[in-house]
Amino acid sequence: MSPSAARAQAEPGRRAERKFEFMEPIEDVHGAASSGALLRSLQPFGTREHFSGNETIFSEGEDSDRVFKVIAGVVRICKHSLNGGRHISDFVFPGELIGLAAYTTQPFAAEAVIPVTLASFGKCHLDRLVESDARVRTQLLSLVTASLLTAHRLQFLLGCQSARERVASFLLRLAERTHAGRGARLDLAMGRLDIADHLGLTIETVCRAISALKDEHIIAVPGPHQVILSDLGALHALAIAA
Amino acid sequence: MSPSAARAQAEPGRRAERKFEFMEPIEDVHGAASSGALLRSLQPFGTREHFSGNETIFSEGEDSDRVFKVIAGVVRICKHSLNGGRHISDFVFPGELIGLAAYTTQPFAAEAVIPVTLASFGKCHLDRLVESDARVRTQLLSLVTASLLTAHRLQFLLGCQSARERVASFLLRLAERTHAGRGARLDLAMGRLDIADHLGLTIETVCRAISALKDEHIIAVPGPHQVILSDLGALHALAIAA
DNA sequence: CGACCCCTTGACATGCATCAAAGGGAGTGG
DNA sequence: CCACTCCCTTTGATGCATGTCAAGGGGTCG
User: Fold this and answer.
1) If you average pLDDT over residues A100-119, what whole number do you get?
2) Residue A3: its pLDDT value, please?
3) What angle do CA A80, A81, A85 make, to 5 degrees?
4) Residues of B numbered 39-78 whose beta carbons fall under 8 angstroms of chain A's beta carbons: which are they?
5) Do A155 and B4 lie within an 8 Å CB cutoff?
């Protein structure tokens, strides 16, 4: 009934830390709208933090007094329900920020999908910056607006699309965000279960949808964590969303 | 496959304008977080606009240069897809605002569910106010943050809950928003199709879920547009969400 | 080499979508 | 004032997409 049920992953930090070279040094490639001047100004106040795969960065309900920038790795933003359900509202890639919105208490958890390096800043520094610099204000609002837009996109996907369409949309969005245009090879840092919990499906359905797209030569799947988007036209046709 | 498909409603404005007295004069009851000082300062610049039931207020893709406050009536915020699908990301009630986020072009459409009265302001006035008043800045950010939170809630609902659970969550949320606590009688301004497109279900499934809850004496349904929440405990138990 | 974890595929079950039709309230015209 | 029509809601019958259960495969780590 409720997808993903209680088969969540193993304990944080316990799992093998696969190395994803391809994830390491990409900084601010797609960061045009994701940090820019804002974070440059914060840089002096930042401290580095490291988390291993599946480790929790912060949990739902904690105080929200820090802002994070992902330097390397991938983070998932998720909500856990009492009966074991989980929903991943977004993945966060290098160059992007976490915790900008005006929460006093975290409305969701953040967990490392693979080993992650973060820059972390006290929110007070952001507040000070916001007060003193009008450009930062504008940027802050447009970053929060962007995540609102992303949220509405996912709502549409969850409300209106079939499994195949969801997977197609997901792959396209991932391509947009991780390598803005260089070739059709895509690296999936997250596992099938993460994808399933993000798309509101089960892991089996995600597998089947991927296999189906593969059989139709719309994508190629050299390994569980690599996808090649062979037929972008067909993918876009599936992801008819707005 | 895709819910709601192409059975959207009739032409804007053509439908009968049912009167919903109960919706008229409720102003700023739940507005604690929804307008407050911000709009009071904007008041002098506002003009009144009226829309009849099912009329379009603005469409997706239009320029986004105005901010609206709902004075009376109910507005739905929705996205239409090319193949006739529709998703309603939110309903907007009296006292609440539309268009605060930093969009340059509308990412969604706004339509009157029932006859609506709006106060409308040029965004430039808001910008000016934001520059001059730090309190307004804080409030603006927390309003946008609030809608981000709402969006994540709906994502969870769409990703993890069954039809019954969705309807239960919806009714509870509606109760929260429309009458903060006075009795368990609930007025549904929107029709079943609107509810379906909001919850990612079909109209028939919504009907059946409501009937089921009625048969179990969890709610009572005096008419299609009135619901009495008889067993709040059971409803909360269904809406296990976070 | 063995254990574990994740991915994949198959067989089956079911919740919800789809198709179809009847009931009820509101506005309209006779 | 009544009959008609339209639209929305409700309920029933059926089918399908996806969830559930189960088992095997392949990589990685110890």
Assistant:
1) 96
2) 46
3) 80
4) 60
5) no
Residues A199, A4: Cα–Cα separation, whole Å: 11
CA distance B199 to B204: 12
Distances (CA, A) of B118 to A190, B70, B71: 45, 5, 5
Residue A148 in contact with residue B151, Cβ under 8 Å? yes
Footprint of strand C on the protein (CB under 7 A): A 1, 9-10, 15, 191-193, 203-204, 207-208, 210-211, 221, 224; B 1-3, 5, 16, 18, 162-164, 200-202, 204-205, 223
Q: What pLDDT is stored for residue B227 in this prediction? A: 96
Where is pLDDT greater, at B65 or A42? B65
* A183-207 pLDDT, tens digit each: 678 999 999 999 999 999 999 999 9
The maximal CA–CA distance of chain A, rounded, in angstroms, is 56
For residue A103, give the nearest of A133, A131, A126 by alpha carbon.
Answer: A126
pTM above 0.70, yes or no: yes
Low-confidence residues of chain B: pLDDT under 70 = 1-37, 39, 43-44, 180-183, 241-242
Look at residues B66, B70, B169, B64 and name the one whose alpha carbon lies nearest to residue B111.
Answer: B70
pLDDT in tens, A53-79: 999 999 999 999 999 999 999 999 999
Please, what's the b/e burial string for B18-36 (b: 16 or more CB within 10 A of its CB; e: otherwise)? Answer: eebeebeebeebbbeebbb
Q: Does A151 touch chain B (CB under 8 A)?
A: yes
Written as six digits, the tokens of A83 are: 């009966």
Bridge pairing between strands A226-229 and A219-223: antiparallel
- Option in B81, B148, B242 nearest A81 (CB): B242
Q: How far is B21 from chain A (nearest CA, A)?
A: 32
Tens of pLDDT, residue by residue over A21-37, are 333 333 333 333 455 66
Closest CA to B8 of B84, B74, B77, B75: B84
- Please provide residue A119's backbone torsions phi and psi, each rounded to the nearest 5 degrees: -105, 135
A238 touches strand D (CB under 7 A): no
Among candidate residues B71, B59, B207, B112, the one with its CA nearest the CA of residue A242: B59
- Indicate the DSSP class of residue B150: H
Residue of B nearest to A80 (CA): B242
Kindly list the distances between the CA atom of residue A138 and the CA atoms of A37, A61, A168, B84, B109, in Å, as whole numbers in the listed order.
11, 28, 33, 35, 24
Distance CA B192, CA B194 (A): 5
Q: How far apart are CA A147 and CA A107, in angstroms?
A: 14
Tell me the one-letter amino acid at B115.
Answer: P
pLDDT of residue A24: 34
The DSSP result for A200-215, as a single string, is: TS-HHHHHHHHHHHHH
